[in-house]
## 1
Amino acid sequence: MTTTSMRRTLGRALVLLLLTFGAVLASAVPASAHPTLLFTDPATDTAVPGTPPVITLVFNEAVTAGPNALTLLDSDSRTIPLGATTTVRDNHVVTAKPAGTLPPGTYRVRWQVTGSDGDQVEEEFRFAVGTAVTGAGTTGAQSTSWGEAVLRWLLFAGLAVALGGVIGERFTTTARAENPHLPRLRTWVPLGALVGLVGAAGLAVLLVTGTSTLNTLWQGGVGPLLVTEAAGVIVAFGLSLVRSGRWRPVAAVPLLAVVVAEGVRSHANVTAPGWGALLTGVHLAAAAIWVGALVHVGRAIFAWRAHRAAVRWVLAGYLRLAAWVFALVVATGVVTALLLVPLSALLTTPYGQILVIKLALVVAAAGLALTARLALRRRDRLDRVRVLTRIEAIALVVVLGVSAVLVSTPPATSGQPGLPPARGPVVPLGTLAGQIGVAVQASDGQLVVRLSTPRRGDYYGALTTRSFTLSGQLAAAHQPAVPLDFRGCGDGCFVTDTLWKPGDDVVTLHAEAPSWRGGTVSLLVPWPVASGAAELARAARALRAVPQLSVYESVTSDTTGAPPEPQQLALSGDFFLAQEPYAAGTAPIATRISENGRPVRLALGYPAAATTVVLTLDEAGRISEETLTDETHLIHRRFVYPDHG
């Protein structure tokens, strides 16, 4: 072999040796880092509806786990039995099954594994178990509260008999002054006030039992209105019992408190503050006078049937009054309807359909009143006039019932009718219940849940009204679960009053929608909370400064199936941040939801985009975990930085 060929051979061997040595070094770099826990099921600091069938930990590399690598502890640090620990997927996944049913509460999973570098790594994470949801759910956002409707009908009927009775007695009192031989009519004003009091008291009981605290009820504005209505009816009842007839008309004054209170709490006042209350108040007062005066006049017609001249005089006076109150009822009713119901929703929504029924009954009652007036002018038989008057009274009593149903049904307006504004800090959370998007906003004394489903057909076409069913329960530490009484607040929107206990509150929800897979989910709502705006800004700056990192991402649109395999992405922090809703380091809602001494967790809400984000920060203030939820996706991400381990 020549000297030249020997040099070439030695050169090739040296290059091969260097390449081999470099490959060995390159392969040894990942092994020198500790294993990183990517995802857990149940997820860290979240909740599940019931006992998880298996506890799963997913790592970024193969690990070795002993038979007791996982330890489950309850909130009192007592050990909960687990089955044997197993590893699957080439030792990247560690699992263990709970040995029995886990009662509702908060649990910690303490884990210990050995990485490929021979070092042991141990940490812990926590999750909560909620309660099974029982009972029928709230369906849609246009549901009617029938219990409230019945009680409000009693309130309206009592108001009509009392207020309209005071007005109607003016006719009969004048007639008896002209003819003292006419039989005296016993007043029904006390009876009307008593019936109204029963309705007001029943509404108070219904609302108090459905509200977590009296303080919430009072701060929400409902409490003062109930007290106002009850006080007005009680005073009117007392005045109506005074034997002196001169004091009885004064009973109408406190009854106006009911009119004012109903105007303030009306749907119209939510849509058009001030003017809406005035419209509703005038409408209710006119309808009550129409009905109550007719009832009193009808009693006079029956009692004085032998005195034709007196009957004609009383009927003539009532019909003149009825013409004016009918005009007020129609005018205020039409304006209110235009405020609350788009013409396109008049026949397609429950509120619009009930409104059409009410309109038909009012027209029928007006027709009967007009027919009676014409018959009276033609001097027809009084028997026919009495029959017409009786039918008119029945129709108007039914109108009051339909009005009560309308008040107890959310209107078909755009936006979120009847949704009180959030008080204090807001905790925005999100998840998927099967294929149904669940977005939650928890604030002081209130829980708002918005449900959504993927769009079918033309994505840019008009969004059709969707039907949802929602039920839920709230459980706090060492306390029994209480059902959540949701009411509708728009398309896919539900709201309920809640009392958040200090610590971890577990909200369990069951959502369903036609043609979509639903399910039961639980969310961990810590309370109290504080602003996280400053920490979000710092975390965004820290992530932007990272030249290179690995992001392990898991995306799903349906949680009823097996969780997808995580995908590894290598990219710069600046590039990743540019794709995120918090790229500017701000969010419409940014709340810190972790206690001091625990890893910082931030809940971010983007209501206009129907998106929520939960971030976990590491000790350096960088984002270590992210859970992003929109209307159709649930995304889990784990961030691994070059200096990890």
Note: Confidence is low (pLDDT under 50) at residues 1-32, 211-220, 413-418, 458-462.
## 2
Amino acid sequence: MKKFNPSRSALKRHENSSEKGKVVEVSTDNLEPQFLDGLKRRKFLGMGLLGFAGLTLPLISKSETQNTIENFVSDSIVSFADKTTSQTDSIQEKIQLLQEALVKKDYRTARALTNSIRISEIQLHAEEENLGTPDVAASQFGTVDSLPQVWKTWAKGWKYYKVVSLEEKIGTPRKAEPVEVLLSFQASQTASLAREIRVVEIKDGVLTEVISQVFSELRRGSEKICKLLFLADNQGKEKRQYIVFYGNPDAELPNYQTDLKVSGEGYGLDIENEYFTAILSKQTGQLARMILKREHGLEIYSGGQGHGEPAGIDWAHDYVSDDGIQKMRISLWDECPDFEVVKGPICIIIRRWGFPYSPVHPLFSPARMIMDIEYRFYAGLPYFHKFGHMTAIKQFSPAALRDDEWVITGQSFNEMLWMGPDEKLKMGEVSKESAEKLWGIGFFNKDTKDSFFGLFLEHYAEGLPELNHNGSPNLYYKWHGQIWSRYPVPKDIKVIPKGAVLHQKNAYVTIPFTAQDGPAQIEHLRKELLNPLSASGSVLQKNVIANESNSRLARSGEAQDSPISKALVWKALGNVKDPQLYKADISIVDLGLIYDISVRGGTVKILMAMPHRGRPLGSYFIYGSNVVHATVSKTILETLYEVPGVRKVVMEQTWYPEWSSNLITDAGKIKLGL
């Protein structure tokens, strides 16, 4: 599995929209270049009131005052990639307008501008986020026509391929292990990586498709980039090759079936697999409850009223403010300041980030440490991951800081578990010499065999000394249940310097646990997770032996065998313009709103997105008025019923994945003046 490399990209969003009724406070040193990979390390000018810096303006005429404000602001602002055009305004100009509004104490205008700046940041994030160096470059590819004949026939419909090699290095067999790779493609070779990519294992010369998941598909210049997850087996100490096929305009979104299910909207999801159901808070996205899927279905939860917020079992991440006045918690978010969600058959990813809130938010709203937390839940696995990154964007002196805490109400468990630096699982009280050297903590019930255990796979800091690895488990926290709580900063460290980052990667596992078999299972899992399959770009072995497969790669209609030409369907949809872009004369195809087309008999099914939730009615393009383009545009129904053989049209709308400018075609960008 590719090592997690969090993108501290784009601007860390200031969550102060006019909808939430908040006032922004930021300073000129809030963000340093090392935190702006997604903006190509451009420095972001903070937006502080002049008065906050101890500056005042002389009592001069109104016009002179305005000129003084504008000159001060324009002299302070650093250029961004975006520009003011006839259709939009740049961040640079918006910051200038915001500074002027704040100086004049025109807070309604300032709040509106803050929201507009945030929107521009989101757009820059979409256009400039840097996912890192691809494991397989755009130049590394082959053509299907060059493959052995039996493979070429089997993969009919696809034009190109890449080769990924996986190696298991410690002699431990793997079964359906999730592997993540970052791939780059020549944009001219693919229309949609999500639709086209198929991953195939080579074994004894036979090609076999494996379940895969494409996400984070981006366009960068002449290349397209995506993250790819797939499930891989290995007998241990093996090198296996996988072929990634792409370049098929007739391909449809694959419909892989696994035990991973998800329901809900946004970040407040219910996620289920064979082993457990995880219930995330609808308010904060924190893990609120888990149901362990055994015969009695134990539900682990944290009861009571928390600290005035809904309780959950995951209470991290937080810190106590200077002088111990209050605790700043992400559990106090009224909603996630920012989040990203990835859904698929292999993995559900929920990433949330922002500044923690005060108990009396927004009275106190310090911008000192950003909490960036990501859960990953997998198909067919009894564990989930949590990645955490706590980044100090200014120097501050917290009285305490916590990066992992779990609280479970009731007496579901009656034995404690822990793992020290020797990586051997032990039961009972933590020894004194291991109290600051813990790499695993948990509980089990010796009667029911239920268990919950946290494996600490990575725990380190940038800009700080070696962290403490503490958090000894407690079976009777204030007599209501179990707890462990980790305070990683050594007690002699009183100041967290600007730029310091605390990192963690944990795996939380629930298995039927006995004193005889459980320790070996947990130790074995830790070894696997610390030594994932190693992925790299490769080429097919010379003189490879190719044998026939029992089936073919293409589903019905994917190998130029559709009963109605998909090329004609795409061409017809090019006649459907967005009338709200009056003179751009741009179609829903060039906007990238069509995610998928399938043809079954005389029925054509369209999967379609809308640009944003302010326009939720995709049916507008089915029935809507096209008066603006009365002579050049048609509705989806009008244009598709003109295609020979089409008898029925079905349109399904989706919000996932969210539409972005990465999906606009080259022709569309020209029409929009991008």
Note: Residues 280 and 287 are 4 Å apart (CA to CA).
## 3
Amino acid sequence: MTELSPSTPTALTRRTTLRAAGGGTLLLGLGLAGCRSAVSATEAPAGNAAAEPRRGGTLTVAINSDFTPSLLFAQSGQSLQHRLIYNTLTRYDDRLTPQPELATSWEYAKDGRSITLRLRTGVTYHDGRPFTADDVIFAVKNLQNPLRAAQLRATAAAVTGFDKRGDHELVLRLAHPVNNLFDLFEFMILTDRNSVEDAVTGKRLIGTGPFRLTGWSPGAGLSFTHNETYWQPGRPYLDAVEFRVVPQADALLSSLRTGQSQLSYSVPGRNLAVVAAQPDLAISEYTTGGGAYYLGVNTTVAPLDDKTVRQALAWGIDRERILKQVLGGYGLASATPWPKSSPAFTESGRTHYTYDPGKARELLRSAGHSRLDLPLLHINLPGDTAVAEAIQYDLRQVGVRTTLQPTDPATAQKNLISQKMPGLWTMSHGFAQVQPSTLAVSAYPFNEAKNTSKFRSAAYTKVVREAWTTPGTGARANALRQQITDTLLDESFIIDLVIRGSVQVAAERLHGVTLNKFAYLNLDDAYLAG
């Protein structure tokens, strides 16, 4: 069985896609019946004839929500364009082994308290300024800034010193060892330090990436043009890229079917069967489990401060139905956040909460409740609304009546960050696809120090901190990850539902598209065949 790359989608035949949409065994490529071929970053997706890269052309990407400049340094649904404008220090391969990007090599000190980075020479920003060690220092300090919304701030904050050895060698000194430093290096975009305040207001975004941002029309989209001075010789192949905001599901689907757009990650699961029948479109899945749909619970809102009530909600949701009917069969029903590729994954954790409405009602009665009325915030996009409606239906069957609160994506993300969620909310989270410690020290829903649910536990903090500073392999690391999983299941302040990576819909003539672990779109090698 071929190893699957986290940055390259598994390309599906239309026959396979239709089976998945019908609720078959297609589960993110992480637990399939049998094996199927995978593609590497340099191969054309399966079903496309091999072709020599063709230069020129404009790629149009259909997105369902607009860029939010104030969230530039936070991973969210508005992060797709990051790798077009910016580079990162490193990128992971399919085994979570770091590969060079703007850092060409590195060396950890034996005590884990420092790392020496050697940086790529000959790299310039879009305004012509050379990239140097000072830009890495700025990027780390920028994420340490509490005014920036950024999930990996705790890891950035562990860096307490910088020793420059010329313009292209840098030593980072750490307050203590951490096992997710390369998560930071793939997450951290290397912005231009001289224009960062313009960047967070959307005025100017200057990076070292393969494309330059030439325009942003709020509510309409973004325009990019080929960076003629990109450090990778002969890249990118495309002349330009357009991001077009199409929030309505039918209009987005029409733009793909008519060829107005050639790429999207925003097609709702219910529409994927329609796409599968289109001969000039291909559906591909990313197998990292880079996201997960969940139900969030504000533990300061009575009676949700009682974990028995929260556990009742966890038993009362039919994850398999959401997977099959709402998400088109793409994903993995799971009570825990971990994809099967994670060292924290266990089958017993995944199936800890299965659908048992009788048990849910019994737990609610034991807590003194026969009926609850609660708000349920959700993002007001078609796919997210469908998930919220499925949750609403299931909870009604066990006596929990919810009132839906549709909210635009930017406001929902800001509420998530600022801990201003109502009693219940449903969104999707990431960060379980990298080092497991990153989820609990960085992701807003799970952060041990300050999470959206306002859940606090000295025991949770202790085990998370120990897991973060313990080397990522070995019996002790496994035991700590299991303790984190046990806490998440028992406390149920975040109720995971379905693990789901990005599902890509693309024109058959589009080749070479990849995503990194944080769903940043990489078009270095992308081209449109004739």
Note: The chain is about 30% helix and 20% strand.
## 4
Amino acid sequence: MAQFLNAKDSLVTEAIDGVLAASGGMLKRLDGYPHIKVVYRADWDKSKVALISGGGSGHEPAHAGFVGRGMLTAAVCGDVFASPSVEAVLAGILAVTGDAGCLLIVKNYTGDRLNFGLAAERARALGRRVEMVVVDDDIALPDLPQARGVAGTLFVHKIAGAAAEAGDALADVAAKASDVISAVRSIGMSLDTCTVPGSAKENRIKPGMAELGLGIHGEAGVEQVAFDSARSAMTTVLKKLSGDDAKSRIVLLNSLGSTTPLEMSVLAYELATSGAGFDHIVGPAPLMTSLDMHGFSVSTLPARPDWVAAMQAPVDLAAWPAMQAINKVETSALPDGLTPIKPIPSDSPETRATIEGICDLLIESEGSLNELDAKSGDGDTGSTLAGAARALKGAMDRMPLADLTQLFPALGNELSQTMGGSSGVILAIYFGAAGDACASGMTIPEALRAGLDRVSEVGGAVRGDRTMIDALEPALDALPNGIGAAAKAARAGADATAKIGTAKAGRAAYVPEENLLGHNDPGAEAIARVFEGLVHNIG
């Protein structure tokens, strides 16, 4: 798998320097590359308790991304998924620890515990005051003697960081961190494993399945479960997290790497509407990732007043999203003039059957039209048309089916609301103009042609530009000779687009010639299929 990196050996050091270069001077590092990789606050004066965390790289923005006022003082970075050495941790301790002492916040992995623990002992022998806490928030494997530390560690960073920033003594900061550790709980789910640079990817998660409880280093989870939606995924995760006595909780919603912001927002919706007693949320955001893992994790903490206050304390960190209250979604009425005019419904069995037949055809064509569009565009033509078709079928009882002068603009209005992209507005213009022409006394073929003329006038596309017009115009020209002639003309026009290497309108205009030749324009193909379907339905 291709990745944006230069060399495996320099990956982590170049990434750290990229973070520092973009930090606005807020961060600096020790001059110890390649073995000592310590990032710390540029403004640190050692007057307060220092907080140090870290571990293997690959979890960005953790941990260097959370170095700043109100959270970590320093982060000690290892290579990808590898604990930093004792010498690296000791260097970090010595660099930032003053008379107030320092607290090491360590995730519960053997390498981290050993290296941070031995470094703490050596620092104490050198006269430094050092305490260490170990985070074990992962509930995925309840029978494991020592649970793993995962994204719930960030609650410890934030609450202990607020205490240290407020000037609390080392013992008090450590006690508050331990208090949080005893209450935080986390679990993750993923649709895919991660890609470790320089290593072959392990494809152990089967299609249609999700892995529950996998670790942040790609370790196998507790089980693979059937996956069908964000809702079922979030329900499964929250069921595992249930069981504490808290009536209100803070939740941290974390992307494990490659889960898109759109997906994370859907997961946030499912979480917010779950009724699971969440009052505050951190995220959704990538906070403690696992390289490019396509998954998410949820961490929860009881919403104790002191913990809520600590979570609300300000920090100077771009990577840390401020905690927000979870509120009911508020809406307001559409501005005057935008509320759709509702037509007077009327029925025509023949018209209803024709429209529903077209809708069914477009729904059935969703996959093949998407596949065709992927060769020359963004692969969504089928989904756009199928979504509009489903919505239109659901609106049939509201349509003036017996009055074409009213039906055409009603169709345009419906499609403008339910069809995304440029397709919706194009069809709104088309059917609006056709309705006006029909009302003025034109025949149906003439009215439909008037709609096409209006689309070309407004949109600028003409026959030969490799758009749906290449099928629609010849079909309408042939329509006075019957629907069969129109269908043949539409098919010939659609097939001709495969020979047009330069599109002059639509998204295909940005696509190279080699991607276009040999493939029908998806919009023209859809038009051809509609006319062919009409032949089948009405002869």
Note: The chain is about 40% helix and 15% strand.
